[in-house]
């Protein structure tokens, strides 16, 4: 944006939005991990109630398996890596 001689106000606002986005990532990861741990705890609590065939229970178990949480452990996000998206090639006014 700087190389294209964009409006300094637009550049400043874009940098603020980008900075705010980077600050939200750790909080979002923490909230996601807590929600998954809560879901795992809930499934363990209701396991004896015979709801294993319930559509929602099946989906919840599938979700936990998809993110790598199984019945024995709750693993934290191993990588914690943030992938940065390049916005250099966006046209003026184009959403990313």
Question: Topology, please?
Answer:
Layout: H1 8-45, H2 55-66
Helix pairs in contact: 1-2
List its traits.
mainly alpha, 96 residues, elongated, single chain, 52% helix
Give a description of the structure.
The structure is a single chain. The chain has 96 residues and is an all-alpha fold. The protein is 52% helix and 0% strand. The protein has helices at residues 8-45, 55-66.
Assembly context of the chains: single chain
Q: Would you identify the regions where 5 or more consecutive residues have pLDDT less than 50?
A: 72-78
Using DSSP, what is the number of strands? 0
Helix/strand structural class:
mainly alpha
Helix content range of the residues, please?
Answer: 40-55%
Q: Order of helices and strands, N to C?
A: HH
Give the amount of beta strand, in percent.
under 5%
Rg from alpha-carbon coordinates:
21 Å
Q: Main sheet, how many strands, which sense, barrel?
A: none
Number of helices: 2
What is the end-to-end distance? 14 Å
What is the arithmetic mean of pLDDT? 76
What shape does the CA trace take?
A: elongated
Brief rundown of the structure:
With 96 residues, this protein is mainly α.
């Amino acid at each position: 944006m700087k190389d294209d001689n964009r409006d300094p106000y637009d550049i400043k606002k874009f940098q603020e939005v980008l900075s705010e986005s980077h600050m939200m990532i750790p909080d979002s990861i923490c909230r996601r991990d807590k929600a998954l741990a809560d879901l795992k705890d809930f499934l363990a609590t209701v396991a004896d109630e015979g709801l294993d065939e319930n559509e929602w229970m099946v989906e919840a178990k599938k979700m936990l398996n998809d993110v790598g949480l199984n019945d024995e452990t709750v693993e934290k996000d191993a990588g914690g890596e943030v992938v940065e998206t390049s916005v250099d090639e966006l046209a003026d006014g184009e959403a990313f």
